[in-house]
Each structure stands twice: as C-alpha cells, then as structure tokens.
Description:
The protein is an all-alpha fold. Among the domains are: 249-335, no CATH class; 353-406, no CATH class; 414-505. Helix content is 43%, strand content 3%. It is built from 16 helices and six strands. Strand 5 (369-370) and strand 6 (375-376) form a beta hairpin.
Amino acid sequence: MAQNSKPPGPDQSRNEYIPSFISKRPFWAETTPDADYLEHQRLQSAPKDTLDQAKWYERGKKAGPAATKFRKGACENCGAMTHKTKECLSRPRKLGARWTGRDIQADEVVEDVQLGWDAKRDRWNGYDPREYTAVVKEYEELEALKRATAKSKDGDKTLENGDVDTDGINEETADSDARYGEETDMGRSQPTSTRQLRLREDTANYLRNLDLDSAKYNPKTRTMDTTALKEAGEMDAEEGFIRSSDEAAEFERAQRYAWETQEAAAAKAGTKKLHLQANPTEGEILRKKQAQEAAEKKAAARKALLERYGGDEFLKQDPMKKARQVFENERYVEYDESGRVKGEARQIARSKYTEDVLVNNHTSVWGSWWRDFTWGYACCHSTVKNSYCTGESGRVAFEEAQGLRTGQALLLEDDKSQDKETDLTRRKVVADEDSKAQSRIEAVVGDEKERLRLEQTGDAREADGHHGTTEAGSNAATTATAHAKKRTLQELQSGISEEELESYKRNRVAADDPMAALLGKDELVELH
C-alpha cells in the first residue's frame, strides 16, 4: 500500500514564532477555555461580522394588527407593549389608552441587531439605495431640459446642399456636457473650477508685486488689497512703466470712474455712455459734480446729527491749543512718594455733574441743606429742586409747617401761656413788697417830722419818746430798704432765694416720716 507523501497542513492555532515554554500551558494552570491567558498570542480566526453581512432593521415597522383591549404592562399613552410610557414617541393624549381603551397602537418590531466594530462605525449602514433614485431622476430631467433648450435655441444647422450639420451639433453637445461636468453646484452661474483654478503658465498674484510698501495680498480671498492706496502716486510694482506721480494716480481714478459709468449705462437703458478718451472734459466735470454731491450729503448728515444731539463745541479746534503744548523744556521738577509734583497746589477732583450753578434766584446750590433724609436749598429750606427761592420768609414758613406737622407749635403755645401766668404772679408779689416798703418809709418820715415839730415847741419828754419810736421805725425801715436793695434779679423774679428754700426743707417735718415723732426724745420704741 503506497503511503501518502503529502505533508500535514500547518496548525492554525500554533504560532511558530512563540517558544514552547510560553505557548504550552503549565501544569498548575486551569484547563477551562475561559482561562486561556495566551489567547492573544494565537492565530485569530477571520471576523464573522463583516460589513457585507451586517444586518439592519426597518424603522417604525409594526408587528401585526393592534390589540383591541388594553394590556397590563403596556404604554399608558398609546397601548403598545414594546416601550414604556416615558419612552413613547406618540403625541401625549389628554386621556391615555389605559383609561379610554381606544386607538391602541400596534407593537413595534424590535430586532436584536449585533453589530461589529466596523459596522457600528459604517456611515452607510442601514441606508436604502432606492432613496437615491429621486436624485438620479432629478439630474436626468435637468439633462433632458438642457438638451431641449439647446436644440430649440440653435435649431437644425443645415448646409448649403441641404444636409444637416450633425458634427457641429455633436461638438456643441460635447462642450456643454464638459462644462456641465465641471460644475459642482447647479445654482451657480460660474463653474467652481473656473473660479478656483488658474493656468500653470500664469504668474501667481503674490509674485506680481514684490514691493513691501505696496498693496498686500489677501490669501483668503486671493485678491490684492488696494484699499489703503488712497494717496496719489502709490502704484503697484508691476505697473512701474507708468510714472508714479499725482497725474498718473488721478488718471487711474478717472479711468475707473469711466468704466463704472459705462457699466451703469449698459444696465440702465437710455443713459448716456461716458468715454474718457473721447470726451475727457465731460468725465472730469461729472467726477467733480459727484464729489461735490457726496460732500454736501455728508455735511447735511453731519449737520442733522449735530442739531439733534448737539456737541458742536467739542468738534471745534482750538487754535491756541497746539501753541500751549509744551513738549520739552528745562524746568526742574521733583515728585513725592505718591507721584505728585512737589510744591504744586493739589487740584480738586471735579465731578461729572454741574457744580456751583445757582438757579431760580437761589443763593446756595442744590444739596446744601438736609433735613429728614431730604436734600434741599440752605437759603430757603426748599426741598423742591425746580422751586423759586423765597428767602427768609420761606425758612420761617417751613419751620411753622414743620411745627404744625409734628405738634411742636402746640407745646410752644402752652409754654408761652404758662410763662405769662408766672410773670404776672411774680410782678404782683414784687409790687406788694414794694408797696409795703414804701409805706414803712413814709411812716418813718412822718414820725421824724413830728419829732422835729415837738422839739421846736419845747416838749422834750415827748420828743425823746417819739425819738425812740422814730429810731425803731427808722431801723426797721433801713433794714427793709437794705433787704430790698440786696435782693438780686432772680430773687425779685422768684420771690424765694435758694438759701430760704433749703432752710425750709431742713426745718419742715415730713408728715409721712414714721421717725419724725421721735426726734429729740430719749424713748425706746417697743417692738411688736
């Protein structure tokens, strides 16, 4: 029997590049397939979840007819069993299917889709190619419409012998197809390739002008920024064959204005076209007229703004301002620790509000007087800012109004009435004392006259007795007169001095004092 000389096939689970002491499992390791810690070193089988085998499901597919009765555990809103109430995508009903039992929706088809790593990240997974049929149909309709338009516009081109020029038609169709293929957007009038590409033999824009002081190239818009070239004589470097003078720049502006005028005339029928070389005087007059109208329009707008909002005084230039400016001098200046100039008067910080402005005949500013958490004028005590000053009469009126409002006027009237009564009483007491003293003085004077009469008549005994009486009376009168003279104005007004009042308080007996009856007695009080 002949032996098969075919060598055995290689073991797929064996890696020839891993040593045996690593690939073989040791005796102490577990034999379960889950404990294969060398699985990552073995040859892996081909993945089963390829993109061509990936499954998908139809969104929103219903499983069979809907139920006729609400089932326990179903969605309370629509009655389906495949989702909960919080996950329901139907419109929230005023009364759900759980309470009404009407319009119960069918259950959705829920498929367990197992996607691999690539299938999860496949942007076209689940896309239906049939949806692209509408896009293809739209392009076909546009192509048919374009061919029909080209045919109706040109018509059949016939030769002199009557044959149809089919070659010309085929060439035009091919050209239109090529242009159509270059365009990426159907709505643009200019092909994108024409706008974004340039010929290789053309010089790049950023290489045309190598002057660093001229216009700058904008790489984003791929244009040359020439907006800063407003001064005359600033021309580009590639136009160096033209003199860079004032006349050259002015000519460029005139040429540009003529071109813009021609474009406007072409767009608007009935407008006269402007040609710079044929009639340069007309172009110059029109340019000056346009500049004058623009300047007048700008001045009118400026004037309207100033009339409405003001501020013309801030726009006027002070001719002496520049002359007053000192840029450099030899004056020696020293500064202190805070940065101020030594010896210089400290300037008071001015507020942004108006200060020291007297209005409405006031002699003080608003806020110079404060009363009861209210600001006012100190000259008339008025708390109304737009009021007219009333002077001293206004202050008196304000105090009277405050007194009536707070009740102080009534208290002042009571005090005045009490003071009047006290004054009348004091005047009466003083008048009584004065009358008594005057009567005593008159008595003494009468006695002295009587004594002198008796002495002249010769009755000595009666004169001596009358003299003693007269001396006693004169002493009493002298004492009363001296007492009356020594009294102060306060004593005359009050009638009682402080010493007399104090002695009265010491000598009087308190009626309600329980120990007053034992004063000056050596008796013991029995305790009850």
